[in-house]
Amino acid sequence: MASSDGAGSAAPAPATLVGALDQGTTSTRFILFDAATGTPVASHQVTHDQHYPHPGWVEHDPLEILKCAEQCIDGAVAEGGVDVATVKAIGITNQRETTVVWDKESGQPLCNAIVWLDTRTRSTCEKLRERIDVERVRKLCGLPISTYFSGVKLRWLMDHRPAVKEALDAGTALFGTIDTWLVWNLGGRTTHATDVTNAGRTMLMDIHTLDWNDELIAAVGVPRSCLPTIRSCAESYGKMAGTVLKGVPISGVVGDQQAALVGQSCLRVGEAKATYGTGCFLIVNTGDTPVFSSKGLLTTPAYKLGPTSPAVYALEGSIAIAGAAISWLKDNLHLIHTAHEVEGLASSVKDAGDVYFVPAFSGLFAPRWRQDARGTIVGLTQYTTAAHIVRATLEAIAFQVMEVLRAVGEDLHSSGVTAAAGGGGNSGGGGGAEASDSDGSFKSSDTTSFIREVRVDGGASVNNLLMQMQADLVGAPVLRPVVVETTALGAAFAAGLAEGVFDSAESLREKWRLDRRFVPEITPDERARRIGKWEMAVQRSLGWIEHGERDAEDSDEDQEGGAGESVDALDAAAGGGGDGK
Q: Which parts of 195-286 fold into alpha helices (H)?
């Protein structure tokens, strides 16, 4: 049963509001922002059920998600005492890749939605790799062949759900990610469309033309007729057909991680944001040309803010275990009772006591891609306390983000992309990475390369100690904004831009406000020493699972394929995160 924890302000609403429906993996929320300041003025949030029919499978009920969305919209308006006439536009941001198929005549889903982190399509991917040039696929769409992406989920449904196959054959089936499902329903079932950021995660869109690619569609084996129209992130998708906001334009659609990039005002080449959730997502703006990674990062559309505006691209890297490591300390080791205790306990010791924790619970993601790695804690002595282990856990999150940033920097350098000089808006200045370590063994500029600062959001970004560790290891400033609801803010901004509430993308930079700027406090030599020890710890985590060996978490494979298997390196390349997804 869905539950609600809505919150809103009783203060009079500003003259102009823009709204954002943020549909995530575990919950949905609707936030109304003051267009003049970018400040949230009202919100409502509702959780939805998670369905786990088999090991490795995760499903959502599309009708429940739609009901939650409508409830959140009505709840935010009511709790905020909002005059509906002041709401000028609504944007939608969503968990990417989660796949829905429904019948356009009845409007009913043909099955539950397959969630982005579901791994049942592993055998489908293996078959695709046998007959498709993997590098050709990557050059066309920027993605590996992975269980993560929507196209293979649609293919699996065709093969294993007779109702889906029958509706596709009859021409009545519609496919979409959650954004498409919401647009179609909230807009009165008149618009079957998606945006470039969500289409770019299907493995079916040509990343250069931003249109469905016939070669990819034929390779995966899905019908083009069921696919939605691809639009920009900021244009009309219709008008609300119901709720208290009936008639308000739906004018923005952006996938969640890209929406956070926009919400963080990372609109210049080389600007980066990191979202700390269950996992961690890092996206770097690479400009108007796709940059193809040699480090296993994803090439993805960042945004396209209008039908005639140029597309902007990004490199994306993901870390499997970030906040999940804190949960492990609490739920498995019982070293803490609540996540709020972490910063105080970790701060009670001056360092981690030479303890290093590699949280490779299901292998290592970007940029190493090692399925055979497993979690490792090294450097334990009789001196070690719970506080040292907790501090080492925070450092592990920061080390992993540092590695992704270094990989991005190397890709940018090899591609010839010149990054922004840093700073922007009210960030308080750009700052920059130090030139090099004195002994030459590690260059801190190699960590972030051209990246001069990192903007952060997500639940763990409130941890000041972690953010300071991040700045120390990256060798560049870490900036935390006042408004941390950056995903919703990005979608609201795209919608407002389409409706003329905002006059340009640069106007968002003026609204971005700094809460705190963390600058590196350790010497280059100390940074090099710590990274060297981290590398030693990582090496000790590798090779734990031998080829063909069953993992302790593996279950018997379900007869429909793929259940219970650990995700391989290509599947892991897409990553996962908390409700930031």
A: 196-199, 214-220, 256-263
